User: What shape does this take?
Amino acid sequence: MLTKGSEYALRALLYIQLQNWEGKRPGVVEIARNIEAPEAYSAKILHMLTSHQFLDSAKGRGGGFFYSDQQAERALYDIIVYLEGDRLFTSCGIGLKHCSDAQPCPLHHEFIKVREKLYNIFKNESIRSLSEKVRDGNAVLNWNNHTDNIS
Assistant: This one.
């Protein structure tokens, strides 16, 4: 459902948060390698996210990506809407341009429920809340050909 860009962004942001809790500030090469994403595309996404103040970065020795407390609390919804617009929460389930309650597509009434559920999930979860699930052992990240429970 999410675009590749949003998937990479969320994975990168989770990786950064988990590394920050260990006192580390990862760079683009490390992030891309660990989240299984192309380096150039990761750099572009991370640049966009820092430009829009979803996270911070520093250059030079001790540099890399990091969060302020407020940045890590931003809803996933904000990140997704910034990267791909609100289509996930507003579009027709089969991609029709003119789908409404008055003129519903065959999936309209059921898909509204799916969109509302997705909206609630992404509005109520943040990078911090997802990272806490991993840190606390309640979720895992399966990337880089192994299962990580980063603590």
The chain has one domain: 4-140. The longest helix spans residues 4-21. The CA atoms of residues 37 and 46 lie 12 Å apart.
